[in-house]
Amino acid sequence: MNLVHSVEGKNQTTPIVGVWRLWCEHAGQDEQVQGSPLEKITTTNPPHVFEIHPMTKFGNFNLLTSLKPIDGFTYKKAEDAIFRYAGTRCQLIAGNDNTVTIQTAGVGFNYVECVIEVLPGDQVVEDDGRFVFCKILTLDSELVAQKVRIAFVKDSKPEKKVKTLTEGKTMHIIAIPRIDLAVAAF
Asked: Are strands 90-94 and 100-104 parallel, antiparallel or unpaired?
């Protein structure tokens, strides 16, 4: 935080690295256009559907060790969260000018505690992470979702653990949901 505050309000850029996230936790009524100037942000959570979350590097400061459970936070239950996600309307509209409009309502349910069970098939490794198809289970091992694509940040503790898991093996995780553009493109 000291590093962030040391550059705050200065007319300089600081490189950041993190995970692209499209999610409707803080969707609002206003129109936001990529590349357009923004008004000064006066709140910690202005309306948005795009964010870099989690951030994994700020300047030269590696933040991978910050990917861990939040002490004292009450996580959402998988059975409640998946039901909410399935009932939330989201429409992606392709424009003639190579743009995409996202129309969605806010859903919240940002951090979900669950168990994943690795499904058969190869884990897909990209430059910045690993993608694994899994079942989503409650903490009591009740099935919530049959097949969900889970992303793991490269070199994070969870990514290092999941790469050792084979079909049928399970792992307890805190999930941060997002709109899966691979599924949307399909």
From this structure: antiparallel
